[in-house]
Design a protein that fits this description.
globular; alpha+beta; 48% strand; 2 helices; six-stranded antiparallel beta sheet; 95 residues
Length: 95
């Protein structure tokens, strides 16, 4: 897992791993920990610290495809947040 600094709305992730073959981007705050997952309306997975609403991870499905198509990524966590292709470029370069 690569150290990065990725902002998606108010969320900040400092670790990323991108699976280019599956086009799946894994973002984490700190090292991955045991967490509770919840699917977003967009089909991604938000991971919360157990018993809290603190976001500790995000799994983005079809990350590059969505950025190529839309130029941005929109995720509901529970409010809608977005990130531009430029903001996610460092994370997608971890492949």
């Amino acid at each position: 897992m690569e150290a990065v600094n990725v902002h998606i709305g108010p969320l900040v992730f400092d670790h990323a791993d991108y699976d280019a073959e599956g086009d799946v981007l894994y973002l984490h705050v700190g090292d991955p920990i045991e967490a509770e997952g919840e699917e977003t309306p967009e089909g991604h997975l938000v991971r919360f610290e157990p018993g809290t609403q603190r976001v500790v991870g995000l799994t983005v499905i079809n990350a590059r495809w969505l950025l190529d198509r839309d130029g941005r990524l929109i995720i509901t966590v529970p409010e809608t947040v977005e990130a531009s292709a430029d903001e996610l470029a460092p994370a997608l370069a971890t492949a």
